[in-house]
Write a structure and sequence with these properties.
The structure is a homodimer. By secondary structure, chain A is α/β, with parallel strands linked by helices. Chain A folds into 2 domains: 2-268, Nitrilase/N-carbamoyl-D-aminoacid amidohydrolase, CATH 3.60.110.10; 274-521, HUPs (Rossmann fold), CATH 3.40.50.620. In chain A, 36% of the residues lie in helices and 18% in strands. Chain A contains 17 helices and 20 strands. Chain A has a 7-stranded mixed sheet with strand order 5-4-3-2-1-14-15, with helices on one face. In chain A, helix 1 runs parallel beside helix 2 (56-70). The N and C termini of chain A lie far apart (61 Å). At the A-B interface, helix 2, helix 5, helix 8, helix 9 and helix 15 of A face helix 2, helix 5, helix 8, helix 9 and helix 15 of B.
């Protein structure tokens, strides 16, 4: 039997587009004489469709996709992920299902058992878990067809009471197929491969794994579909961060790649992956919203330099407009470094000094500001003046403003809401300041793209004379670690202090994090790169009183 | 046996404060000779604690509250809601539990079976559902102790496969106690009473029901704890929208109110409840963040007028600063109506004309705007100039800016992000424009508080000469219905058209709603008043392609 893995980028709610894409892949598989083509989880409607799943209309459109694909399934079968209404009145209204299409019709519907409901996942919001276990029999091969999380309950601390493969293995399957929508994070590629290998080894079966690729708002799906043999070795992978399709043969328990030499499974470079994830995240955000032009403010600092580079890679230099917005507090090097960056990227830029507008704001506010010292209000005012100018240009000429906030400042609230926190998409809001330096060094590995002076100088917001980030924040090397332990490892204050950090510093940092939740509530979507990003994957109260 | 219902306002994460509050209530109940005091769901840590529940430290602090209360439980028992770690490695790490405290210690722990995971609820994110059913026996009385949702699976379309009371009734209980954190919405008070009555009647048992009261960020809990007799009649209620405590006697299956005459259950006035919910929502947002002063822009329109009135009720007139921000497009009546409102509310106000700053912005932008027509960019620029001025004043003098966006504009994107969408809290973001008129008429029922001209004139954003909302939007009477069917009833386009609305208008409206998701992602928290508010209860992709 020949099995084709089709790793495609689906667009949430774009039923016609998704169907067309699957039909083209099906056609290609037919020309290779494939017996079965496998698409990823919830391929018809896109993943995550979120509350669109609560609309009957949306479910009907998904159903129509299935029908449109089924009629082409002659001489070939297809596995397509799609939502399926629950026929019983008890329980949630839907199942997260895998449709087995054969002979022009739906032959079997397999339902997802384990519904992730943590971090960015909300599947139990929509779906009823499966309790009945069946194999799919096709051309004499017994397939254990599973959906994403169904293979993931193999840790020492299992989150679910059921392990679907423990049930399915009793029915004597010949192979495992898993259709997934497993988003990228810095550690996910390795974890995911381990999960697939563990399943292959534990059940002594080959695994065919098809993941989604593409970006949806805050999530990036990296693809990396793969095939593992029954020894638990991953022996071939599809591409990462792009669409791909490959066909394998499966004969008497052995799997081989059709027509090609199986790729040696690649050792991943984490910075290369990170850059690819960011580029894909930006590119598809624009594509899926039918925009193509980005604008952003260039401060002379490392954050906006990195976002400019990424935007150029994602959208092309003809579609990126950097704007310098100097004030009386801007240093010469800020302006020169920004210009050097644009020069390196062959990028035209614009300059709008903000002093005049800022002075006029201060004049208007004089009755309420007089006799007060220069402080946070004045700092924010400069930042907001820049935000308004950038948004005006964006509105006038159809740009999306890119946000350049990093995770360290987003955590402790070192940023101005409606100022530098403006933007349609936070590109690097899930990268710590220290990681940003590392990524820029990686980008500069062959030639200086980010001007070296930007990497060497001390970070500064330049909102008052001679200001440095280190005036109000601990050194990023320390700060980033405390934030990491609190946000990503979810350790409490005592546990972090026990790691060797100064107690007062830990308490102050956690207090800043919790006090600034009101700002993050209004932050743009952040491209998720870690196992815990700010945004929908982290949900805390604003008006709580915990560690603050 | 004497049973005390304690309906208290808990503060998320404020363990010391919550414990103190419960101990004071316990002391009071002791003086009444009560045998049992009942507190609401997750009383120790507050509801909803959201992802704070993922911190071991947070759970330990909750546990310490339980211990602190338990030592005072001599001669009286207490039921306290609190999270409890799951001792098994399989499943989620916590239970949502009710602790039965007696003789100075934890006598029994009852766990929640049904975990709401829809709309604003995420309980399956944190908790493992209960599968074991036990009664609590105390002083010869067998108590079916249930937690909130556990009583709610009695509809024709049950969401869960288990109905806890169907299991508990087999064990022969004498009464039902339910501890809850059931948030207010316009229809919730009636629905909730019906659920309690249905349970009492179905199981032929009295029900003691204790709900949370108070506001947490976007949620308002209205209280309305009550007692139903076994015929299913609610015979007594505690207060709505305030803390309350009452003691009842329960003897041989009969329940009576101690020392007082049972209140006839009140007929609710929906506008009075709505106003009370809004006032409580604003008041506790400020209290819980340790702020007391609000600032807001007064446009001369009905939305900012209503929010000013509500802020005065919530915070006192000495703590509310309205600011008039007229432009060259502001009509005389806008200014006069705003002044009349402030006069009616005896409220000093400030005025900052924006023309000078706006002109300077336009000058700075001239290189990029020249030869373009006045349009959306210029309109937004005015709105953002106002936003910056208000935020500057807020930052300088420690105000929270109140947002005055309504649900109709939030739906169709008729508002400026970082402009009139600024603010720490969206007060009326879950009220349709048509509801705002009705609420203002209710507020004016005895005397003119909101100037009548504000209610009579045509709504206008006044961002260009002679602009009217009706230039770009359908009449609110029609628009609000379409939005309601789509957002709250979750009907698709065809279903709405079948209700008799023009097809093109429906499609255009739904398109506007879906296209403007990017703005709502960055909107302030909206006080939830309906069964589907914008915010955490409604989660849709930005970059989807569905009806847009």
């Amino acid at each position: 039997m020949k099995i084709t893995l089709a790793q495609l980028s689906f667009h949430t709610g774009n039923f016609a587009g998704n169907t067309q894409k699957m039909l083209a892949a099906l056609q290609l598989a037919k020309t290779e004489g494939s017996d079965l083509i496998v698409f990823s989880e919830l391929a018809t409607c896109g993943y995550p469709a979120r509350d669109f799943l609560e609309f009957q209309d949306f479910i009907l459109e998904s159903k129509k996709c299935i029908e449109a694909i089924a009629v082409h399934c002659h001489g070939i079968a297809a596995i397509v992920g799609s939502p399926e209404p629950n026929p019983k009145i008890e329980g949630k209204d839907l199942f997260n299902a895998a449709f087995f299409l054969q002979d022009g019709r739906v032959k079997q519907i397999i339902k997802k058992t384990l519904l992730p409901n943590y971090d960015i996942f909300d599947e139990y919001r929509y779906f009823e878990p499966n309790h009945i276990f069946d194999l799919v029999e096709y051309k004499g091969v017994k397939i254990a067809l599973t959906i994403c999380e169904d293979l993931w309950n193999i840790d020492d601390n299992p989150m679910y009471l059921t392990t679907p493969m423990d049930e399915l293995i009793k029915l004597g399957p010949d192979l495992i197929i898993n259709i997934a929508a497993s988003p990228y994070s810095k550690t996910q590629i390795q974890t995911r491969q381990e999960v697939i290998m563990k399943n292959a080894a534990k059940y002594n079966l080959p695994v065919f794994y098809v993941n989604h690729i593409g970006a949806q708002t805050h999530l990036v799906f990296d693809g990396g579909s793969c095939v593992a043999d029954k020894n638990g070795d991953v022996f071939d992978e599809l591409a990462y961060f792009e669409e791909d399709q490959k066909t394998y043969t499966f004969e008497s328990g052995k799997v081989e790649l059709l027509n090609k030499i199986a790729s040696k499974v690649t050792q991943r470079n984490q910075w290369q992956d990170l850059e690819a994830a960011l580029v894909l995240g930006v590119r598809q955000y624009f594509q899926k919203l039918s925009f193509n032009k980005a604008i952003l403010g260039l401060s002379g600092g490392i954050d906006s330099a990195l976002v400019t580079y990424l935007a150029v890679k994602a959208l092309g230099k003809e579609n990126v407009l950097p704007v310098l917005l100097p004030s009386q507090f801007s240093s010469d090097h800020s302006i020169n470094d920004s210009k050097a960056l644009c020069n390196n990227l062959e990028l035209p830029f614009e300059t709008i000094p903000i002093e005049q507008v800022y002075t006029n704001f201060m004049k208007a506010l004089d009755p309420f500001f007089k006799d007060t010292a220069f402080g946070l209000a004045e700092e924010n005012l400069q930042s907001r003046t820049r935000g308004v100018l950038l948004m005006a240009m964006a509105n006038k000429h159809g740009y999306i403003l890119l946000n350049t906030t990093n995770k360290s400042e987003l955590a402790v609230g070192y940023g101005t809401l409606y100022g530098d926190m403006c933007g349609g998409l936070s590109v690097i809001g899930d990268l710590y300041k220290t990681e940003i330096f590392e990524l820029c060094n990686y980008i500069n590995r062959n030639q200086e793209i980010i001007p070296i002076h930007i990497l060497q100088k001390e970070p500064s917001a330049e909102l008052r004379p001679n200001q440095k980030d280190s005036d109000s924040l601990p050194a990023y090397e320390i700060l980033d670690q405390i934030i990491y332990y609190y946000i990503e490892e979810r350790l409490g204050p005592q546990q972090i202090i026990q790691k060797g950090f100064e107690a007062q510093l830990v308490q102050k940092t956690l207090r800043m994090i919790n006090m600034n939740e009101w700002k993050r509530w209004q932050a743009p979507p952040v491209i998720r790169l870690s196992k815990k990003a700010f945004g929908p994957g982290r949900r805390v109260p604003i008006s709580g009183k915990y560690l603050n």
